[in-house]
Amino acid sequence: MSQRSKFIAALLAAPLVFGLAACATPAAGEGGDASGEVVKIGVVGKGDPQWAAFEEAAAEEGITIEIVDFADYAQPNPATTEGELDLNQFQHIVYLADYNVSAGEDLTPIGSTAIYPLGLYSTKYESVEDIPEGETVAVPNDASNQARGLLVLQSAGLIELKSGGTIFSDLADIDEAKSKVKVTALEASLTPTSLPDLAAAIINNDFVEDAGLAFEDAIAKDDPEDPNALPYVNIFATRAEDKDNETYLKLVEIFQTDEAVQAGLLESSAGTGLAVQTPVPDLVESLAKVEADTEAAK
Asked: From the CB of residue 26, how many other CB atoms can be counted at a distance below 10 Å?
């Protein structure tokens, strides 16, 4: 079984271990009135400063939201599909496309938030040039971030990918004979805690500060302003049937325009995130393309 297939199987089998109510939250604001409803939004990293600011800003507009925290990326999408969440905001387009294709679902983006560079970190070496040949570097084991992490390693001159690198690259694509380091895949939350045993690791932004690291500590990273980076724009996602929900769209507008929310978003990434207001049709088009490419790669 390929690395990608193993991830997909794990994603589909992942238990929902969070404590949500057994019944689905009624859809808020279908008539433009959120009175009496609570909009549940799934995130990874509820402690990030933008979420408290978002709750306050939403309340000022008469919308009550509940931020539901998750420990890993495998849980919010199934919860949204099942109606246990109304929205989620934790993923980029590539990750959502992989979920939709793997699970046969139709979650859709209704707004963008930011794009973040993905960084390579080390507690042993100050630059990629210092990493000795034959050392081991870790990447996240989820398909989308693994591919992106491998592209960062290739750009840094640590590995060479047989295909030249795509959003579907996995460990099997590494040309070991032409690569400087060995690469292992770990669950995303384990990459920072494994640093003492590694030369370096690609660490997702959600886990950088929790591991006592700073974003500026990255010894290599990708460029979030690259036009080809659209599939890595982070998004609000909901069920396709709710894509025109007025309350949900209002919440996206609040997130994108409220000064305190945007300040919190910048603070949570130590200034490395780039806030974006990508038109929704562009997000939907990008999702459709990545889904088609994902299907073709299966």
From this structure: 12
Whether residue 1 is predicted with pLDDT greater than 50 in this model: the reply is no
For residue 33, name the pLDDT band (cuts at 50, 70, 90): very low
Element (H, E) at 110: strand 108-112
State the chain's maximal CA–CA distance in angstroms: 62
Contacts of 12 (CB under 8 A, 6+ apart): 102, 103
Q: Give the global pTM.
A: 0.72
DSSP state, 26? P
Strand 220-221 vs strand 64-69: parallel, antiparallel, or unpaired?
unpaired
The span from the CA of 149 to the CA of 170, in Å, is: 9
What would be the CATH architecture of the domain defined by 3-116+228-297?
Answer: 3-Layer(aba) Sandwich (3.40)
Which tokens belong to 271? Answer: 């200034």
- What mean pLDDT comes out for the span 155-161? 95
3-class DSSP state for residue 143? helix
239 vs 132: CA distance, rounded Å: 47
18: how many CB neighbours lie within 10 A of its CB?
15
Class of domain 119-222: alpha beta
| DSSP 8-state assignment for residue 24 | P
- Summarised one tens digit per residue, pLDDT across range 103-112 is 999 999 999 9
For tokens 């003492």, what's the residue?
A: 196
Size of the chain, expressed as the number of residues it contains: 298
Residue 168's closest CA among 155, 151, 184?
Answer: 151
CATH 3.40.190.10 in the chain is located at 3-116+228-297, 119-222
Give the pLDDT confidence of 201-225 residue by residue, as tens digits. 999 988 998 889 999 999 999 887 7
